[in-house]
Write a structure and sequence with these properties.
By secondary structure, this protein is mainly beta. Helices cover 11% and strands 44% of the residues. The chain folds into two domains: 2-121, Immunoglobulin-like; 128-218, Immunoglobulin-like (Sandwich). The chain is elongated and about 80 Å long. The structure holds 2-acetamido-2-deoxy-beta-D-glucopyranose (5 copies).
Length: 227
């Protein structure tokens, strides 16, 4: 699932400060550090980190008072126990990311203002390859058909992903889903005796998962007997 803010809205916000917008992509469950770019913060008075449409203050360093404040009870506690501030650089680390943490983060210090647009992607499962038994009901039992094994690679309830079959390193076929969270399946027909290596790859913009096909294992059971 991809959560991105509408771009022109971002440009509007960036225009107010003008130091730029950095896009950051992260997989659910991972951690991310938003870097201030400062090597030391002694020349700053205040370092402020804000999040979301209401510019909610989530963390701050008062350099003069050498105090760090983490407001992780704000916004329904979605940041609870997930924020860390680096004492030296003021950089903000968010751990165990969920889709609730996607959005715009704003850093403001005396010398720096920066915006970070955080996109959160689903952690991808390994796709599942199975024998396509739905074809078994077709009455045709000609010998030309029976030398083939019908397979299907599938995943459930995902959005923003592509599912592909590869033969060696070459792409054979693919199918994509953008917005809706749906189940995907992609068929493949192989000969029982095929010695090529096949793999099914699931990917989104930032990661992928691969399942290798074992023809002898999947296709042997129920091999049609030629009479
Ligand atoms: C990460 O967040 C999820 C969802 O909020 C929670 O169930 C899980 O226990 C957290 N994991 C860790 C290591 O904190
Ligand atoms: C897929 O989504 C549907 C509807 O949201 C849900 O009922 C079903 O349990 C989900 N299946 C899996 C395997 O997550
Ligand atoms: C899907 O296949 C089409 C046609 O072969 C190719 O142009 C496209 O780049 C492929 N997309 C992905 C995500 O692999
Ligand atoms: C999957 O990877 C291909 C090739 O790297 C890329 O073109 C495609 O956009 C990716 N799919 C998604 C849904 O991001
Ligand atoms: C899968 O991701 C790895 C890096 O994590 C990359 O090297 C590889 O090319 C990707 N494979 C495909 C088929 O996109």
């Amino acid at each position: 699932m991809v959560h991105m803010l509408v771009l022109f809205y971002l440009w509007h916000l960036v225009g107010v400060f003008g130091d730029g917008l950095k896009s950051v992509s992260v997989t659910e469950g991972d951690s991310v550090t938003l870097n201030t770019g400062l090597t030391e913060i002694m020349y700053e008075d205040l370092i402020l980190w804000r999040f979301g449409a209401k510019n909610t203050l989530i963390a701050q360093i008062d350099v003069m008072a050498s105090s760090i404040t983490i407001n992780d009870d704000v916004l329904d506690g979605r940041f609870r126990d997930r924020l860390k501030l680096d004492h030296q650089t003021g950089s903000l680390t968010i751990t165990n990311i969920t889709t609730d943490h996607a959005g715009l983060y704003k850093l403001l210090t005396n010398s720096v203002s920066k915006d970070f647009s955080l996109s959160v992607y689903s952690r991808l499962p390994v796709p599942v390859i199975s024998r396509d038994t739905s074809q078994c009901t077709s009455s045709s039992s000609s010998s030309s058909l029976s030398s083939y094994c019908l397979l299907v690679c599938s995943v459930v309830n995902l959005s923003g992903v592509t599912l592909s079959w590869y033969k060696g390193n070459s792409l054979l076929s693919n199918i994509s889903v953008s917005d809706l969270s749906i189940s995907l399946s992609l068929p493949l027909e192989v000969e029982y005796q095929d010695k090529n290596t096949y793999s099914c790859v699931l990917n989104n913009t930032i990661s992928n998962q691969t399942q290798h096909l074992d023809i002898s294992k999947l296709c042997s059971a129920g091999t049609p007997v030629l009479i």
